[in-house]
Design goal:
The structure holds two protein chains of two kinds. By secondary structure, chain A is mainly α. Chain A is built from ten helices and two strands. Chain A folds into two domains: 1-130 and 237-266, no CATH class; 154-233, no CATH class. Chain A is 70% helix and 3% strand. In chain A, strand 1 and strand 2 (99-102) form a beta hairpin. In chain A, helix 7 crosses helix 8 and helix 8 packs across helix 9. The termini of chain A are far apart. Chain B is α/β, with parallel strands linked by helices. Chain B contains ten helices and ten strands. The longest helix of chain B is centred in the middle third of the chain and has 16 residues, at 177-192. Chain B starts with a strand and ends with a helix. The chains are: A mainly alpha, B alpha/beta. At the A-B interface, helix 8 and helix 9 of A face helix 2, helix 3, helix 4 and helix 5 of B. The structure holds adenosine-5'-diphosphate and magnesium ion. Adenosine-5'-diphosphate binds at residues 14, 23, 25, 43, 45-51 of chain B. Residues 49-50, 170 of chain B line the site of magnesium ion (MG).
C-alpha cells in the first residue's frame, strides 16, 4: 500500500504542458499568482479562469484528480470566506445580532474565495504536470544566478532530490517499525490525543536512528561516486528552451498584459 | 602481471572522540592487487574488511602506511577524485546508495560529478543499464524495485564512471538467493570485460570463482592465495571461526574415512569427477 504512494501528486502524461521546460512552467505559475492579485473584478477572474481551464484541458489531467487537491483547503477557504463576509465594514445588507454582512464584505469574500481556488488549482497544475525531479532541476537552474552571491542553489536542489528519493524509503521504514511494535502490543489507534502522541515516541526514535544511518551511508556512497558539490558538475538532461517554450512564454506575457490593462480599465 | 593497487604497511585506527580510546581496525596489511584479477576477501564480522575496502578509494585515509591506486597515493588530496573514478565501490545496502528517484538519473550521477559531456553521459547510462540488464527500468523509481534490481542499478552507477577496479563490499548480503545469483553473474561478466574485481563476501560459494582468496582475521591477512591453496588449510580457517566451502569440508571428511580424494577440490563438478574416477579405479 505504502509503496505506491504518489509523490508531489505528479500525474504522468506527455501533453504539451508536461513537455514544457520546467523553468517556463515555474515562472508562468508565479506570474499567474501575481495576476490573481492584480485582478479585482469579475471579468478579470473570468479571463484567469479561462486561461487556467485551457491549461487543464491541454494537460489532459482529469478534473477529479485536480479537485482532490482542493479538499484539504476547503476549511481554510470556508474560514476566510466567513471572516471576510462578517468583518468587512460598509453598507449593511443583512444583520443578525452582532453579525453584519456588508455589500463590500460579500464582494471581498467572493473574490478572495475565487482567488484562492484559482491559486490552488493553478499552482497544483505545476506539480501535476511536472515530474518532481524536473521541478527540482528547474528550481536549481532558476536560482543558479544567485549562486554567485553565495546562495546554495545547487545544495537546495540536491536536498530536494534526496528527499524525493528517500520519502518512500522512510515511509516504508515507519510502516515496518509500527507493525513490529503493534506485534508486541503497542496501540496506535485508541485513546486520546496525548495517549496516541505518546505511543508514537517508540516509533520516532528508531525512525530517527535509521534516518541517520541512511544519511551516513548515502554520504559515503555519494563521495565514492565523486560527488563534490555543484562546481564542475554537468547534467545528463540538458535544459534547452525549445520553440514551444518561447511560444508559451509569449502567451503568458500577452495574458499578463491583458490582465493589467483590464484591471486599469474597470 | 601489472600491479593496480599496492598496499604497504597499512594501519588504520578509528578514533573514538568520546572515550579517547582507539580502535585498531587494520594492523599492518601488505597486499598487491593485479590488474584484471578477481580477488575475494572473506573474514568474520569486524575483521576489518569494510575498513580495508574504504582505504582502497580514499574514503578512509591510512593512519600509517600507504595505499597506491593506479600509482596515485590515496592520502593525496589533489588526486583523490582520479582514484575514486578508477576504483568504484558498491556497498552492502542497496537502498542507501541510490541518490535519485529515477533509475537513469541515478546512474548518471557519477558521470555528472565527473563533468562528462551530456551526450556521452547518455551513452554511458544506456550502456551501463544494458550491462546489468536493467534497460527496461530506466524510468522507474528505485523504491519500486527489488533488492537485487536496486543493487544492479548501483552497479550500473559505478560502471557508468568507467572504473578500472570495482570493490564490492558484501553486495549480496541483503539479497534473496535469486538476487544473489543475478549479482554474482554480473560481477563475473564485468570481470570478463577486464575490470579488476575485489569482492568482499561471507558466502563461501561466491569465493569459488575468484582467482585469489584473502582471509582477514582481526585486522590482519590470515591467508592469501588461490582458492585451492587457501582452502587446503582448512584447520587454520576453522581456527579463525570461519567455515570452509562445502566441497572442502566433504573432501576432509571423506579423507578422514580413508577415501583418498585429492586435496584442493572446491567445486562440486570436480568433486563428482574425482569420486567417479576413484570408483572406476576400484
Ligand atoms: N565508524 C567506525 N568507528 C569506530 N569503529 C569502527 C567503525 N567502523 C568499524 N569499526 C570497527 O573496526 C573494526 C573493523 O570493522 P569493519 O571494517 O567494519 O569489519 P567488517 O567489514 O569485516 O565486518 C571493528 O572492530 C569495528 O567495530
Ligand atoms: Mg563490513
Amino acid at each position: 500500500m505504502i509503496r505506491d504512494i504518489t509523490l508531489g501528486q505528479y500525474y504522468p502524461g506527455d501533453s504539451l504542458i508536461h513537455k514544457l521546460d520546467p523553468r517556463v512552467k515555474i515562472i508562468a505559475t508565479l506570474l499567474f499568482i501575481i495576476e490573481l492579485f492584480i485582478v479585482d473584478n469579475f471579468i478579470g477572474f473570468a479571463i484567469c479562469g479561462a486561461v487556467l481551464a485551457a491549461v487543464i484541458i491541454v494537460s489532459k489531467v482529469p478534473l477529479s484528480f485536480i479537485m482532490r487537491g482542493l479538499k484539504p483547503i476547503l476549511f481554510i477557504l470556508f474560514f476566510t470566506f466567513a471572516l471576510n463576509i462578517f468583518m468587512v465594514k460598509g453598507e449593511v445588507i443583512w444583520s443578525w445580532g452582532i453579525l453584519h454582512i456588508t455589500k463590500e464584505g460579500v464582494r471581498i469574500a467572493v473574490f478572495m474565495a475565487i482567488r484562492l481556488v484559482l491559486l490552488i488549482i493553478g499552482s497544483s497544475m505545476l506539480t501535476l504536470a511536472t515530474k518532481p525531479l524536473s521541478l527540482t532541476d528547474g528550481i536549481e537552474r532558476l536560482l543558479s544566478p544567485l549562486a554567485r552571491f553565495g546562495f546554495p542553489s545547487h545544495e537546495i536542489a540536491m536536498m530536494m532530490t534526496i528527499a524525493l528519493r528517500f520519502i518512500p524509503t522512510l515511509l516504508e521504514e515507519t510502516d515496518k517499525i509500527m507493525k513490529a511494535q503493534q506485534a508486541r502490543g503497542a496501540d496506535f489507534e485508541t485513546g486520546g490525543l496525548m495517549k496516541r502522541a505518546k505511543a508514537l515516541i517508540p516509533v520516532l526514535v528508531p525512525l530517527f536512528v535509521s534516518a541517520f544511518r541512511i544519511a551516513q551511508d548515502l554520504a559515503m556512497a555519494m563521495e565514492a561516486r565523486c560527488y563534490r558539490g555543484g562546481d564542475g558538475r554537468t547534467r545528463m538532461h540538458e535544459m534547452k528552451l525549445k520553440k514551444r517554450d518561447f511560444i508559451a512564454f509569449a502567451l503568458e506575457a500577452i495574458f499578463l498584459a491583458i490582465v493589467i490593462i483590464e484591471a486599469r480599465m474597470f | 602481471m601489472e600491479k593496480i593497487i599496492t598496499i604497504d604497511n597499512l594501519i588504520f585506527e578509528y578514533a573514538h572522540s568520546e572515550e579517547h580510546s582507539r580502535q585498531l581496525a587494520l594492523n599492518d596489511v601488505n597486499l598487491d592487487i593485479y590488474a584484471g584479477s578477481f580477488t575475494a576477501i572473506i573474514g568474520k564480522n569486524g575483521s576489518g574488511k569494510s575498513t580495508l575496502a574504504k582505504n582502497l578509494n580514499g574514503l578512509l585515509i591510512p593512519t600509517s602506511g600507504v595505499v597506491y591506486v593506479d600509482g596515485y597515493d590515496t592520502a593525496d588530496d589533489d588526486t583523490i577524485w582520479e582514484i575514486r573514478q578508477r576504483a568504484g565501490m558498491v556497498f552492502q545496502n542497496p537502498d542507501n546508495q541510490l541518490v535519485s528517484s529515477i533509475v537513469e538519473d541515478d546512474v548518471a550521477f557519477g558521470p555528472e560529478n565527473l563533468g562528462v559531456e551530456p551526450a556521452e553521459i547518455r551513452r554511458r547510462v544506456d550502456k551501463a543499464l544494458e550491462d546489468v540488464n536493467m534497460g527496461k527500468y530506466k524510468n522507474k523509481a528505485p523504491h519500486l524495485l527489488s533488492g537485487g534490481q536496486k543493487q544492479r542499478i548501483a552497479i550500473a552507477g559505478v560502471v557508468a564512471m568507467k572504473p578500472d577496479i570495482i570493490i564490492f563490499d558484501e553486495p549480496t548480503a541483503m539479497l534473496d538467493p535469486k538476487g544473489r545469483k543475478e549479482i554474482m553473474k554480473i560481477i563475473a561478466e564485468l570481470h570478463e570485460e577486464g575490470i579488476t574485481v575485489i569482492l568482499i563476501t561471507h558466502f563461501m560459494e561466491e569465493v569459488i570463482d575468484a582467482d585469489r582468496v584473502i582471509i582477514m582475521h582481526d585486522g590482519n591477512v590470515l591467508l592469501d592465495g588461490t582458492p585451492e591453496e587457501v582452502f587446503s588449510k582448512a584447520d587454520i580457517i576453522k581456527g579463525a571461526n570461519l567455515e570452509v566451502p562445502l566441497m572442502v569440508e566433504l573432501g576432509d571428511r571423506l579423507r578422514a574415512q580413508g577415501i583418498p580424494v585429492p586435496k584442493g577440490i572446491i567445486k562440486e563438478e570436480e568433486m563428482v569427477k574425482a569420486i567417479c574416477q576413484l570408483k572406476s579405479q576400484n
